[in-house]
Write a structure and sequence with these properties.
The protein is of the alpha+beta class. It contains four helices and two strands, in the order ααααββ.
Length: 125
């Protein structure tokens, strides 16, 4: 994994030195609906606003390695990297959180999806 602070590829899973990322859940708190199972409530309680999730880290890593991408391209790259299927809606949600936190930005470019629809090309801030 690439460190999102120093950019080094020394596969460490923590941030360099005492660096801690800015809040990635901009104006949100992890929550579960009342109708959700106990496991969802337990998972929401473990998320802190001073950490970046594994999926968010994967998104940043892919954008750093491959440059600006659409959500569709992001999902494909992450699936290739993990060698397993990924949740498209989950990737889109995590990318949206990164955008709300100012870490990922709309490049102003658009590219067609597989179905021919126009898609935003996202890049690192």
């Amino acid at each position: 994994m690439i460190c999102h602070y120093c950019g080094g590829n020394n596969r460490h899973l923590t941030w360099c030195d005492d660096y801690r990322p800015a809040t990635v859940y901009a104006h949100t708190t992890p929550k579960a609906r009342r109708s959700d199972p106990a496991t969802s409530h337990a998972a929401a309680a473990t998320v802190t606003t001073d950490t970046i999730t594994d999926t968010q880290a994967a998104i940043v890593e892919v954008l750093r390695a491959h440059g600006p991408l659409t959500d569709e391209q992001l999902c494909q790259r992450i699936a290739d990297q993990q060698a397993q299927p990924v949740s498209v809606s989950g990737i889109r949600t995590r990318r949206s959180e990164l955008a709300a936190a100012g870490r990922v930005v709309d490049t102003g470019r658009r590219q067609p999806t597989r179905t021919g629809r126009s898609a935003i090309v996202w890049g690192l801030a």
